[in-house]
Known about the structure:
alpha/beta
Amino acid sequence: MYKFDAEKTKEDLVKWIRDFFEVNGPGCNAVVGISGGKDSSIAAAVCVEALGRDRVFGVLMPNGEQSDIDKAQLLVNHLGIDHCIVNIRAAYDGLLEAIKASNSVEELSRQTIINLPPRIRMSTLYAISQSKNGRVVNTCNLSEDWVGYSTRYGDAAGDFSPLSHLTVSEVKEIGRLLGLPSELVDKAPSDGLCGKTDEDNLGFTYAALDHYIRNGVCEDEETKEKIDTLHTRNLFKLELMPAFVPESACLEA
């Protein structure tokens, strides 16, 4: 049975972040999109632990009105980090209208509408990061990555990823060790669109998914099949972009 050592993992993670910045940007800042959810909260908190609050900058990016923006504000206040608010609604509406006006598609798919805000947010993070001597924090965790619950070139992008090898339950343990408010650590994740939680949309709990990932055991066959199908279907998100290598390049190597 897999045993998680939260204290050691937290200490190793803090050291890993420090080492990353020593090699990839001494003196640079960690720039993190703050949604008010557990992942961005814990990613920001561990960066503060590693680098100090003066080197962590939060970016809140509501798309018009955001019902839980108070949780994002709670996080930046709790950590005492500098931050800004960039409302992406005008960019989102403008891009949708431009695409519709181009007559390139008859109708925008639901998935297009869902994935566009995360991609605009990532563009925003990189724009701010480049002007603040920053490195963008990827906030995805292993559980969500495992079943493809992220947007490619949206929240799945970034310069370094502190949580992508930690399951949801492990991320929460790290958050508690870091002293974050329980309303941030235990807040049920949702897509912010349809009023459903991530678990509602997935059709299984993160507890069941985490147990399967770490121990290879899933008592419910239907849940196991759902997880396996999603994992296989979304593996491309975790792999490098396929690239053609001409035969001559192989011979030269």
